[in-house]
Design brief:
Elements lengths: L1 H7 L3 E4 H16 L5 H12 L2 E5 L10 E4 L2
Parallel strand pairs: 1-2, 2-3
Helix pairs in contact: 1-3, 2-3
Length: 71
């Protein structure tokens, strides 16, 4: 179910901490041929999707990510 939703989505909306965790894992998993095919497909999709990060601090793990600083 998660793979289907991710494949159909246009972008990801994430909190800063979740984005940090994703940024540290999914690019590596997307390239790791020892991972299961479904896991790699999910990781490859997540890695290439636009990401919108909501953050009180305004900082994100990746400067190319669009961030919105909130209260």
């Amino acid at each position: 179910h998660g793979l289907e939703m991710t494949l159909a989505a246009d972008a990801l909306l994430l909190g800063r901490i979740t984005h940090r965790d994703f940024a540290g894992a999914w690019p590596r998993i997307a390239r790791d041929e020892s991972e299961a095919a479904a896991t790699r497909a999910y990781a490859q999709r997540v890695d290439t999707m636009p990401k919108f990060v909501v953050s009180r601090s305004g900082s994100t793990a990746n400067p190319s990510t669009r961030a919105r600083r909130g209260r």
